[in-house]
Each structure stands twice: as structure tokens, then as C-alpha cells.
Amino acid sequence: MCGIGGIVRLEGLNPVDLYKMSVVLQHRGPDDEGFLLLTAQQQTQYYKGDDTIAALAALSHIQDTGYKIQDARLGLLHRRLSIIDLSPAGHQPMSYGDGKYQLVFNGEVYNYKELRESLRAKGFTFKTDSDSEVILAAYAHWGEACVQQFVGMWAFALYDSDKKSLFISRDRFGIKPLYYALHNNTFAFASEIKALLALDFIEPEADMTSVYEYISFGATANPDANLFKQVQCLPPAHNLRINLNDLKVDVIKYYDLEQQVLNYKLPAEERITETFNSLLNNSIQLHLRADVPVGSALSGGLDSSTLVAMAAQKMNGKTFKTFTASYQEKNIDESYYAKLVTNAIPNAEAHYTYPAINDYWKDIEKLIWHQDLPINSTSMFAQWQVMKLAKQQHIKVLLDGQGADEILGGYYNFAGIYLIELLKQGKLFAFFFEKKQLKTNFTAGINTALGRAGYYFMPTFIQRSIRSNKRLGMNCIADNLQHEVSNVKVPERGGKSYSEQSFLSMTFGLQDLLRYEDRNSMAFSIESRVPFLDHRLVEFSIALHNDWKIKNGWTKYILRKTAEPLLDKEVVWRKDKMGFLTPQKAWKESSKKELTDFINNTNIPAFLNKEYITKLCASEFSDSSHLSEFWKIVSFLKWAKVFNVRFN
Known about the structure:
By secondary structure, the protein is an alpha+beta fold. A 7-stranded antiparallel beta sheet has the order 3-2-4-1-10-9-11. It has a 6-stranded antiparallel beta sheet with strand order 5-6-7-8-12-13. The model has no long low-confidence stretch (mean pLDDT about 95).
């Protein structure tokens, strides 16, 4: 896990701009720092930064290049968090093929050992034990199609001197971030938005269409949009190719999850559980590959508990540290279940953190700075505290359970759409049976789950009307700008079939969760890994018949059956679903003064209704969605302040 960035400028770039970006990305890679400059004459030169390893101390500093600004057409930077091959040989930018290719890479290719052996058999040689060099050799052999061979998470930029182009790629599901901006004759990219904002020609100006969508609906209509006008996000499963002669940019999709699922050939019914178990175990085994200690976040829920149980078994007796957020409020505290998990694992070492409102107020602006964008609730702060604790325990790699709910249907909408599909198929007996069982085993509010699913079958104007009456967001827009809300597009987050709901969950909500995961972990220089998002497991799981996902009122049924031999039955057959929550209601009640003072002393943008937001500070919410919306508005205002955002 690292931080990467680069600039292409036809008239020549200023190397100091690379340095400024690198300083911003320091938290993503404190172990090493490297730079490369390429001239119009195709000459390459490497430079050091403030954190470059001692073995490369002889390099000139990037701020003392001696280059005239017009000489350097391409600049690359890399901040290293050393995870695999900790030696100086893993330094980047990394060269391959006698300098023909140059790479900066963020992420992990987990099957790099298998790929390296395959490439060796084809005549390729290697000087390091890193996965970075495997990417270079794979590109030399397969070209841009190399990404089809990778099992992992990545965002990388690879310069090809023959093609005089920069090839940039992002992993299939967007686990690793990549942002870029094209301004006049300059192209720049980076792992985080704030690194781009460090450049003089990129302004912190808001994209007002995206802002209206976000405030009104909690998401943008385009899942790859962000709230900054000049910054673009490279979508998951896409490559970007830029020609260094004319700055022509091509963005190409290389992977289609829906197509993969459509063409997926499931094994015989009697081998389904065995296959799922094998895919999950193999993914965890690959995700444990590291030359540094590996631990796991543990909420006490089914997903993270299963990961911990399986991973601990593969540690050959080595201590496996887990990290859990705990509270005095028993209605949201999951530490009881987390303890059931770790108490049954001989080599588990459990650690607990206790998020508090005072810590939230102390860290919120720092958290928002790391996130680049607003957060949708205070639960992201619980994850922040978990990462902080893991850092204190000297953990560099942390497993997490993101993705299981999306691929197996763990959210409320899935239960609702499952029941609707039974109705559409005319299976009335199955509908009433499963509805009763879901009410017993999943949620007493199964009618609410049905309503949530049914909402997306309604015409858009009715959806908008319901949203306006039931939620807070639209009312936060100033009265004289309500016409702007009526024009924004409703994000299509809900599907009309179980599989469509899975694809949309992977496209929308998961992207927010992965951003929180990446930024919160990297704030503490930790590489977070998500084994449920191995693409082979994702394709298999989404392709499964719905009865393997919901059965007798139990959601994620196949995962429960897989976990049954490993975990206490109280964990496997839990009927409540939480995650890394925070006591949002209690926090709001105890923070009324701080919240009111913050609103009164903040320069509220003119497009927002300050009077309405001030009233919300004094309001008591019983609806959890309203609470999250309220805290989202608070984080939005903090974001505007932290980044000095301009709203035009």
C-alpha cells in the first residue's frame, strides 16, 4: 500500500509540484519516497525526497533538480509503505526492461508468486521479490491486458517508452483510489484528491450539481463523481491511457462484473458450499501474504468474525491481533460477540477501543482532511479509532469484512427485493413463509424492508416526493434554490431484482465504504485488505441462486453454513446486524451546545438553509436515518471549512 502521483505537461513541469504532492501523501507511505523525471529527449533521472531510504542518499533531491521547467515532460512520485520485499530493491519508481518501463504502484497483487513463476517459465527474469516487478513483467508480456491476470487491489501508472504513453489502471472494484485532473496542457493524477489540490492550477471549487445530489439524496447520481469540479475519479475496472505527445486521454473499461456473472458456470448443487468455502479460504490465504504483521478489524458480526476465525487458523500459531470498537451503550455494543470469537481462538489477541464524543470533536477535522470528502455518519469515526488502535499495536496490514453484504445480500433492501421476487414468480406460500421467517430471524421491521425495496419500483417523481417528505436533505437547501433540487437526478441505488440490487450495491454504497476504509487506514499508515472482494469470490457469490443467500429467514445463508464449524453459534446465527456503529443519538444530545456553536460560528454556504440546520441542532431524532443525515450535514460543513471549498 502506497501513495502515487504524477504530472504530464507539454511545456514542461515544475519538479517542486511533485514534491508538494508527495508531502501531502506522506501518510500513505512513510517508509520511502522516490521521484522520476522524463525529458522531451526521453532521458530519465531519479530523485530522492525527505523520506527516501538511506541506501539512495546519493540521489539529488527533487527540489534541487537543476532542470529547467520546460525540460521535464513527465514526473512520477511514489510514497512507500513497505509490506512485501522490505529491501531497498522494492524502491519505486521501479524500472524494468533496461528502462523501457517505469512504474509507480499502490496496492497488492496477491497472486504475484504464481504469476512470477508463470512468467519465469516464459523467460522473464526478476531482481526483486516484490509484486511491483511482477506487474512490470506482466505488462511486458501481455500489454494492457495484464490486469486481467491480477488477483488483488491496485492503482498504478506505468510509463511505456516505446509507445510514449502513460498507462494507468484501477482494480476491478475500486478498492484502491485514483484521481486525475486535466487542465489546459497539464494532466495530473494522485491517490488522493488533496494531493491534486496542492497544485496551483487545481482549485477547491465545488461541482454544484454533485453537491445538490449529495445533500438531497446522500449520493451523487454518477457513482464515480466527487464534489470537486476539476477533479475526476478513474472508475473501478477502468484503464486510462495518455499519449505524452498530445495529452490525448482514453479511458477504457476492462472488466464487466454483470457480464462475468451472466456467463458464470456454477458447479453442481452438491458442490456449492464446498466451492464457496474453497474460494473464501483461498482468498484469505492470499490476503495474508505479507512480510509484516497482519491483524484484523473485528466488529463481532458474521463477516469479520468468519475472516478472523479462518485467518487465525492459517497463522501457524503466530499471534493474530484483532481490533474492536466497544461502547457502554449495550444496544450498539458488539464486544460480547467479538469476545466469543477471540476467546475460542488460541492465538487471537483481542484489543478494544472506546470511541467517545470528545474524541470525535477533537479529531473530526483531521478525519475529514484524510477522507477528502464528507462522511455519511459518525460510524466512520469508530473505524478511525480502530485504525488508530491498530497503529499503536504496530500492525501494518489489517483484514476487514467489506463486501460480504454486497455480494451475499446482507442489507435490508435485499430481503425486501427477495420477497418481491417471490411474489412476481407467483410463489405466494414461499412469500408468506419467508416473510414470517425474516421477521423472526432478520428484522422485526420486515415491512419496512419491503417498503424500501418497493420504493425503487415507483416513478421518479414519486420517489422524489417521498424523499422530500421522509428525509431531511432536500429541506437543507435554501428556499430560493429549491428549484435546483427539483432538477437534480435521483441516484439509481435500488434494483428491481436481487442481482440488479447486488450490482448497484457494488457500484454505489460499496464505493463510499471503500473510500472510508482506504483513507482511515492510510491515515495511520496501515494497509487494509478486503478478502470478500476477491473477484473470483464476488462472481461466484453474485451468480448463486437467491436461496443460497436467504433461506428460512436467514440472510447470507451460505456464509453462515461455512462459518458454523468455526464460530460460536451465537455469532453464526445472530439476528441483529450492526457493524462499526456509534451512539449517534446520545452524542447529539450531549453535543447540542457544541453543535449550535459550530453552526452559528460557521460561514454557512448561501445555498443551504441555515435556519433549518440550526433547528436540527435542537431537534430530537428517533429515526436513525435522520440522525445520520444530520451528522452528514455537520461533516459537509466541516469539509467545506477544511478544504476552503468555493461554492459558485
